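Hi F.,

I've been meaning to write this up properly since the lab meeting, where we talked about keeping a consistent format for the predictions we share between groups. The idea is simple: the sequence comes first, exactly as it goes in, then the structure tokens exactly as they come out, then a line or two of notes. No screenshots and no reformatting. I'm using this chain as the first example so we have something concrete to point to.
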Amino acid sequence: MTTYQYTAPHPGLGTPEELLTVPQVMARLQIGRSAVYDLLRTRQLASITLGRARRIPTRALTDFIRTRLDQEAA
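Output, unedited:
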């Protein structure tokens, strides 16, 4: 499986971030493809498009999980 590195184009934006493919997110969350695309479509999970490919920054996945944990705890 290939992972991609995103390099911040502006100096103040921080360190490079790993970009995940949809199958990698599927594996990490243990959910199906359509469920991942539903999260992307409803903007619960942020992504970028590179040509025809969707990539999800690891920070977006971490933020999504943290938000869901906070909602479950409330």
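Notes:
The chain has one domain: 18-73.
The chain has a mean pLDDT of 88.

If this format works for you, I'll send the rest the same way.

G.
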